[in-house]
Amino acid sequence: MFLETIFIVLIFLFSVILHEVSHGEMAKVLGDPTAEISGRLSLNPIRHLNLFGSIILPGFLLILKYLSPTKEGIIFGWAKPVPINPYNFKDPKKDSAKVAIAGPLSNFFLALFFSILIRVLPSTVFFDKLKEVFALIVWINLTLALFNLVPIPPLDGSFLLFAFLPPTFEKVKFFLQSYGPFLLILFLFFGFQYLVILIDFLFRILVG
What we know:
Elements (H helix, E strand, L loop, with lengths): L1 H28 L4 H4 L13 H17 L24 H29 L4 H24 L7 H9 L5 H21 L1 H16 L1
Helix pairs in contact: 1-4, 1-5, 4-5, 4-6, 5-8
């Protein structure tokens, strides 16, 4: 149980960091060097960790999970967002959407890559244990990708929504920006269970 927890934490941290670096790399391609200048295009976890979001909160939720009789619970956290300056983009609205989608896409590609390894590696005692770790990588990255696509600020999905939202829906944008954190908490407690159904569906398709 302890070893599994360590694997989950390490996979989660690496996946979140790759997610943030992908945002910065896409911004750099589109003309914004802010993340690079800030030294954030690095896989060094020290540059990305948020004390509360990356360590305290996930650790607390993990403790609650293992103290629960069912051993179930939400594991949630975040890294420091990569700094982006949309004024450096040629088309701030559309390019901001491209930067936003880069993070979830990186997690989708990770999930796809390790699901392929699960399918092609032979079935031996060693590889079967390795496949269990790979399955964790697939599950965690599918969770990160789909969760971040939820259109609630400050998640990536909100930037995608705002990029295509007509001007007549400006009040919707204002509402989401004003009450985003509150709506996100509500989603975690009352909507996340439905997202898990989709995660499980995609996991079964990829892993088998």
